[in-house]
Amino acid sequence: MRLIALLLLVTPGLIAMYGIKLIRDALFGEFHPIFMHIAVQGLLGVIFVVGGIAFIGGFILHRDRKRNLTKGRFKNN
Predict the structure, then answer these.
(1) pTM score of the predicted model
(2) Is the pLDDT of residue 77 over 70?
(3) CB atoms < 10 A from the CB of 19, how many?
């Protein structure tokens, strides 16, 4: 189970890391030919970063809710 949880956290982390690389490349003008425009590359990078961080945050919040580690602010009704 721990291996599965580790893979669930590493995969979105890698996607977010690739998103940061895409944003950096778009800012410095490094164009990848699989994207149609450099703005598309930057926007996809932002989506990857936000999505990866949101998935990891949601996973940790769900785990903490299950173990009753959250304060009253994040508890389910």
Answers:
(1) 0.85
(2) no
(3) 21
Q: How far apart are CA 13 and CA 32, in angstroms?
A: 21
Distance in angstroms (rounded) separating the CA atoms of residues 26 and 47: 14
Residue 41 dihedral angles phi and psi, to the nearest 5°: -60, -45
| Measured distance CA(64)–CA(60) in Å, rounded | 6
Q: Give the integer Cα–Cα distance in Å for 4 and 2.
A: 5
Kindly state the tokens that stand for 9.
Answer: 């956290």
Q: What is the DSSP string of 29-49?
A: T---TTSSSHHHHHHHHHHHH
In the numeric block, which tokens belong to residue 35? 């994207």
Phi, psi of 37 (to 5 degrees): -150, 155
Paired tokens of 14 = 């890698």
Q: Which amino acid is at 51?
A: G
